[in-house]
Amino acid sequence: MISGPEALARLREGNRRFVSELEGTASSTGETRRRELVAGQEPFAIVLGCSDSRVPAEIVFDQGLGDLFVIRVAGNIVAPSQIGSVEFAAERFGTRLVIVLGHSMCGAIDATLEELERPTEQRSPNLRAIVDRIRPAVEGLLEAGLARDRDSLAHL
Is the dihedral of CA 134, 106, 147, 114 positive or negative? Predict the structure, then answer.
């Protein structure tokens, strides 16, 4: 088990490699690594991120199999199952670092904005659950005057 600060340093270094398009040294997906992981996992960080296909945590942080315990859900919302997943990894694997990975141009945020502008009854109850969890954060921004600048709001 590594400390939180050491885990954060590893993530920062991996992200530096990713941004610089350097050949990663940490990434490991080969047969040897897969065999090692059969016996168990020891992720050094827990990442709560959005399901957006443009921000896969393992790639963004240049990490390999078994390095990260990743929980992904559209809009980066946190429901009891996501909190339970974080608690599970922290307890079971002793992982000391939890990060929330945000990004711009989130489709779930856009769907929430659309719902607030033009409410519809045709949304599935599951999608509505995501929108309803995002709604309180977005409504405050709309009330603060950002409704007139949709592009700025979408980049937050």
Answer: negative
| 8 A C-beta contact, residue 68 and residue 123 | no
Any long-range contacts for 34-39 (C-beta under 8 Å, 24+ apart)?
A: 34/65, 36/66, 37/65, 37/66
Residue 115 makes CB contacts below 8 A (sequence gap 6+) with: 123, 131, 135
**What 3-state class would DSSP assign to 68?**
strand
pLDDT digits 0-9 by tens, 102-133: 888 888 888 888 888 788 877 788 888 888 88
User: Does residue 152 carry a pLDDT above 80?
Assistant: no
At 115, the amino acid letter reads E
Q: In what side-by-side order are the strands of the sheet with 98-101?
A: 68-72, 45-49, 98-101
Contact 96, 7 (CB under 8 A): yes
- Residue 83: the pLDDT is 95
Q: Which residues are catalytic?
A: 50, 52, 54, 103, 106
Residues in the chain, overall count:
156
Identify the DSSP state of 23. P
Tell me which residue has tokens 């080969």.
30
